[in-house]
Amino acid sequence: QRPRLQKQQQLLQKQPPPPPRQRQPLQKLQPLPQKQQLPLQKQP
Questions:
Q1: Which domain holds residue 19?
Q2: Coil, strand or helix: which one is 21?
Q3: Could you point out which of 1, 4, 9, 22 has its C-alpha 20 to 30 Å from the C-alpha of 38?
Q4: Which of 24, 14, 40, 32 is nearest to 6 (CA)?
């Protein structure tokens, strides 16, 4: 029961910090180029 608690705490502490900061800029930059490429390919 001791190793299971430590593994769950490490996963919870390691996942929250990186996703919020790396997901904000990646999601904001991806929707712009992906939305512009969709209409450009459908028009021609």
A1: 2-42
A2: helix
A3: 22
A4: 14
The sign one gets for the Cα dihedral 24, 25, 30, 31 is positive
Residue 5, both tokens:
């608690």
Q: Which amino acid, 15?
A: Q
Question: Tokens for 16?
Answer: 């929250």
Number of domains composing the chain: 1
Structure tokens, 19: 């996703």
This prediction's pTM: 0.17
Amino acid at residue number 44: P
Alpha-carbon distance of 21 to 16, in angstroms, equals 9
